[in-house]
């Protein structure tokens, strides 16, 4: 019969997976920043009309 606790104690995580996880999180943040930059460039703000007191 398999002793799961003993088998789990032998487990060693793969170092590459930790690097991949960091890379994925970094990519997600960069993607969000790229989208925000694109939206901010695309956004056009209407100009306010001249106030009557500004034309003196």
Please provide the count of β strands.
Answer: 0
Cα-based radius of gyration, to the nearest Å: 28 Å
Instruction: Determine the strand fraction and express it as a percent band.
Output: under 5%
Task: Measure the end-to-end span.
Answer: 94 Å
Question: Which parts are unreliable, with pLDDT below 50 for 5 consecutive residues or more?
Answer: none
Instruction: Count the DSSP helices.
Output: 2
Q: Give the overall pLDDT as a whole number.
A: 76
How helix-rich are the residues, as a percent range?
Answer: 55-70%
Shape: rod-shaped
Structural class: mainly alpha
Order of helices and strands: HH
Give the biggest sheet.
Answer: none
Task: Tell me the quaternary state.
Answer: single chain
Model description:
The protein contains two helices and no strands. It has helices spanning 4-10, 15-42. The chain is mostly helical and 56 residues long. The radius of gyration is 28 Å and the shape is rod-shaped.
Fold blueprint:
Layout: H1 4-10, H2 15-42
Features:
62% helix, mainly alpha, 56 residues
Summarize the model shown.
This protein is mainly alpha-helical and 56 residues long.
């Amino acid at each position: 019969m398999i002793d799961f606790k003993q088998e789990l104690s032998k487990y060693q995580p793969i170092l590459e997976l930790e690097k991949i996880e960091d890379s994925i999180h970094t990519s997600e943040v960069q993607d969000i920043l790229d989208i925000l930059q694109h939206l901010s460039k695309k956004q056009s703000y209407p100009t306010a009309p001249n106030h009557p007191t500004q034309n003196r």
